[in-house]
Amino acid sequence: MLCWPVINRVGGARRKRVRHKIGIVGAGNVGASTAQRIAERNYADVVLLDIPEAEGVARGKALDIQESGPVLGYDTQLEGGSSHAQLDGCDLIVVTAGMPRKPGMSRDDLVTTNQRVMNEWGAAIKEYAPEAIVIVVTNPLDAMAQAMFHATGFPRRRVMGMAGVLDSARMRSFIAAELGVSVVDVSAFVLGGHGDTMVPLPRCSTVAGVPLPELLDQDRIARIVERTANGGAEIVNLLKTGSAYYAPSASVLAMVEAMVLDQKRILPCSVHLEGEYGHNGIFLGVPVRLGAQGVEEIVEIELSSQEQESLDRSASAVEELLEVMRRGQAAGSGAS
Q1: What is residue 317's predicted lDDT score, i.e. its pLDDT?
Q2: What is the Cα 273 distance to its own chain's centre?
Q3: Phi-psi region of 267 (alpha: psi -120 to 50; beta: other; left: phi over 0)
Q4: H helix count then E strand count, the chain
């Protein structure tokens, strides 16, 4: 449980509040942007970590963010580095580290490479922050959350993947633009794996409480759904040399705040299912209640037969990635 230990001293002495410590593994664009967003909230100190070859990058970015504090008015303490031991004392850890897919790299290569990253950092988290809650951002998201879950051995409430918040935010943005309304009044609901098999649910998406199908015809809704599923690829194609990081870091922040501030928010996250939605032993995006305990409840809604079939297809795509991981793990065991 995330908590704020408070010490009250006798004689009217000052009340001391012990701050949270949040670890961010991976000092690339997503990791550094997340560190900046958390620092600016001023409720937790941050340690930004990367591999030894990039230690200077992690330390430099952490220092740069800290030196913004006097301008923006936050006292967050940041440190950068590459030592696993710097995770000691972290209440919550965000894992963004991993290899992006490069030209000529197969999906299997990407999965097995990033699986090794999850195994390394998962073992480190288990050793130095055994009570932490872990948010996985590394792609392929659902498979990497599964790898982290096994590497740490943590209960399922303390390991989750960030995907649905981002996918829903993209859908909300597209709906608001299509209707010419504020995003504040738009809610969207996306299930399934983080990829082109995700399952946006228009009937559960609303504008000021009005269901989306009452505001848009099926063709316009279909275009929004398609654009949502390809939202990440759209940005990659525009950037040419990278992928999204502003919206992903904002989505991580929403999850962090839900737990650090014990907000009990209902957010779509990739979590380990144990029979919910008809699936067992797999990470998949579903709505959950996030609070100080981590995943405090998995919210189940009744799906239509068509929606369930779409979710099952999405789960099958995740299963294919898990099979790649199992083969890679078996090959590695054989080599040793």
Answers
A1: 93
A2: 17
A3: beta
A4: 10, 16
- The answer for residues whose C-beta is within 8 angstroms of residue 18's C-beta and 6 or more apart is 4, 5, 6, 7
Residue 232 near residue 243 (C-beta atoms within 8 A): yes
H or E segment to which residue 63 belongs: helix 55-66
Q: 3-state class of 283 per DSSP?
A: strand
- Catalytic, out of 20, 84, 150, 194: 194
What's the token pair of residue 172? 């909300």
CB 259 within 8 A of CB 266: no
Secondary structure letter of residue 235 according to DSSP: H
- Asked if 194 is an active-site residue, the reply is yes
Cite the beta strand spans of 70-198 per DSSP E.
78-81, 92-95, 133-136, 159-161, 186-187, 190-191
* Mean pLDDT of all residues in 253-278: 97
Beta strands 92-95 and 78-81 are unpaired
Q: E strand or H helix at 133, and its extent?
A: strand 133-136
Residue (of 84, 73, 75, 100) closest to 23 by Cα position: 84
As beta bridge partners, residue 49 has 25, 81
For residue 270, which of 186, 180, 334, 191 has the smallest C-alpha distance? Answer: 191
Per CATH, the number for 164-323 is 3.90.110.10
186: left (phi over 0), alpha (psi -120 to 50) or beta: beta
Range(s) within the chain of domains with CATH label 3.90.110.10: 164-323
Q: To the nearest whole number, what is the mean pLDDT of the chain? A: 92
Half-sphere exposure of residue 167, counting CA atoms within 13 Å on the CB side? 32
- pTM of the model as a whole: 0.92
Q: Which CATH class is domain 18-161?
A: alpha beta
Q: Round to whole Å and give the CA distance between 14 and 208.
A: 46
pLDDT, position 6? 41
In this predicted structure, the answer to whether residue 15 has a pLDDT above a threshold of 60 is: no
Q: Is 262 exposed, middle or buried (0-12, 13-18, 19+ CB in 10 A)?
A: middle
Cite the residue boundaries of each domain of the chain with CATH code 3.40.50.720.
18-161
